[in-house]
Amino acid sequence: MVVPNSKISIPELPADLVHRMHLRRQLDRVADVGVVSAPAGYGKTLLLAEWARATTQVETAWVRLDRDDNPRRLWSAVLAAMAGCRSVPSFSPLQVGPTGSGWDLESAGSPDFLAELVVALDTLPAPLRLVLDDLQEVTDAAALRGVETFLRNRPRKVTLVLASRLDPPFRLHRLRLEGRLTELRADRLRFDLDEAHALLRGAGLDLTAAHVQRLLQQTDGWPAGLRFAAIAVAAATDIETLLTDFSGDDRAIADYLVGEVLSGLSADRMGLLRATSICEALPVGLAVVLSGREDAGWILADLERRTGLVREVGQRRGVYRVQPLLRSYLLADLSRQSVERAARLHATAARWWRGWGRPAKALEHAAQSNDPALLTRLVHASGVSLLVAGEHRPLRRALGASGERLIASDPFLSAVAALVGQATGDAHLVEVAGPPSCHAYPADRRSDDALLRAVSAELGALSRPGGAAAAALPEGDAAGLEPEVAALVGLARCAQRLRAGDDPLAVRRAIDGVLAVATEERFGFLSLQCLVLAAVAAAAGGDLRVMRQKSTEAVVVATVRGWQDSPWALTGTAMLSYAKLLAAEPVEAGRLAAEGLAHSLPTAVRLHTALGVIAGAARADRGDREGGFAAMGRARAALGDATASRFELAGMAAVEFETAVRLGRYVAARTVQRWLVERVGETAEALLMRAELGTTNGAGRIDPARAMLRHILDGQVSAILPSTLVEALLQEATLALRVEDPFAARRALQDAVEVAEPLELLRPFVHTGPAVRELLAQRYGSLEAAHTFGGRALAAGSHVGRPLEAVLTPREIAVLVMLPSLRSMNEIADDMTVSINTLKSHVRSIYTKLGVTSRRSAVLSAHENGLILCSATDPPALPEPAIPRG
User: Fold this and answer.
1) What pLDDT score does 571 carry?
2) How do 33-37 and 181-185 pair as beta strands?
């Protein structure tokens, strides 16, 4: 019988083949029987072809099976493939038949024929592999029985590998139990991230890691799906839109799925998959309800075992996931058949998930159920718990499906909408919540409707309604309320107290109590809100250390939970970046501000402005004063008439004013000062600015300026920022030195250090004038004081580049390190084992190179250039030999 060469040839490999060495190594371990089983498009044939071509120790006989293969055609192909192997001698029975007169193909597949084939194989001088590809195509029962008999009786020197889209219909359990069966299924054949990168690069595409990861998730690693994606991406003009719309309902993918994947499934299996396609994760119980089949679990398990189209996921058994592109096709097909049926199935799923205590899942389905009554009941039942837990996506989707009219007519829904909109930065959702005049408070002021609207008003999500209709937060404990409502009320009460001017420390203690409840009840987003509000309270109380601690915790929580876009999280980011700025860490401050700007929307004017000003200030502190000053001006101008807190306004004005003065832009500095006065009135910050501006054109106005500073230092004018008192003391030190009052200058500097130390407030010392920096070096420039706060304040002002380090010799640097100590020149010479004259020569050279004339000036210059503190922390080696005295 003639056998086409294409039927028994190992397939050619494409030029863009993705090599899968780890799978080839697993195939190398096939010592008896191998099964490669996965749906169409998982690369079974290419994998086996690459493996067969790559191995030279054992020859491979390859047979591609077809739908019309009967026993005669099948075994004719097997004999031809084996006889074509170079290791099979010409005299082998495989070539000439069991009696030397050829094979009787009329009896192919019979017990006698198979027995003679086994005997012939047993005489082979070398091992042989037989690959039967596309076994699912064989439908002839006699042919399948013959393959199973051959599998059971063949000699061990013949390795059999079966490739199929469905599990072979053979009894393989004994082989599996004896360890003689090697299996590769869809879970192993899925592409990983590196393989997906390789496939897309082979298609000539240079995608970002994020885009490749997204495609990998959308295709679940299905190689054929990734190839379809590569074709689509290559033709796309907007990759983001394509990735959003990419699904199994694409014409090319749908045709492939129908023709190659779904065509072999029975009607009952197709019906179950279509009815359950509304679910990403499919518990067996839900599959039973949606399909109406009590055997749904058995069908899903059988589909996983036989086809790989579904797989069990998660730690708990009984939850399945359909291949994503296949599910998206089935879902589109379900909607095409009946939109009403799809909506009913979603409603059924919503009720099922609600009954099993999964409100987020329930809302996701309810939003697609076209059942407003069901949707409203679910939001009323679980909206607040989802809000405080941070499950905002299903809430936003549900509220969007409710429609603006329904939200506007329901006080509870409008309050939830406002709080969700505020939490996510969705200004439209807040607007949809409607003006408060449209919603009369219920008569029962302790109803959930009234409480939630009062909370929304106190947290700034809803405008406060006027008149007597406004509901107040309950006093005392919140007994009788649900834990999530009580916790929200507690947070709102803390915000109310803070706004009313209560003691910030007492408010922080109250916030800590709410945070403890939120942590215990696992109200994740409420915990974030507590941390941010605690940071605000700390800032209001002038405790920058706690502000930094709480905002750091808030940023970590937001990052871990993926809430970086929330205005609450962005407030924490802004406060942390400001704290880093004040701690003289401009690089970190700039990084945090840039991250915040990347996540914030320009429509969030207050946050965008604050982050922009901090980013500009950090840029100026890193050396680009002109660029940073321009950025701060643009950010402040963008604020317009938008409201901001006194702390925010004063903080923005202070850093911009300080940079303007350093640049000599006094007109711009006066503009900033007037802007601050218009916004917050006459505060210590504005008075400090006026005092500094009054001394910029000469010494004649020093006395009035010191008088203004005295008002700040004596507490006659209240300050908004914790840094203001420190900056006023440093300004007093500067002016005292200008009128030759060193005692007053040293006292002011000492007071500034004492005030700034508990706050870790280093930035004012970086930007103070050179005269005060020199005074700082005198007081804290010694090695003994290097690790005090004053020493760190001195170090914070050093230049990053350290240009003088290359000018001085290692021996001169060693001498320079000793100059800040309290030792005399003779003691330094003794410590370094050099003569006093040699030491003086080094000192004179140091003075010349630094451009100074005294030991004190040399120490200051060394500190300014980062030489001494670097050396004090890590003393340099002294490669020069010691110079003997005398």
Assistant:
1) 94
2) parallel
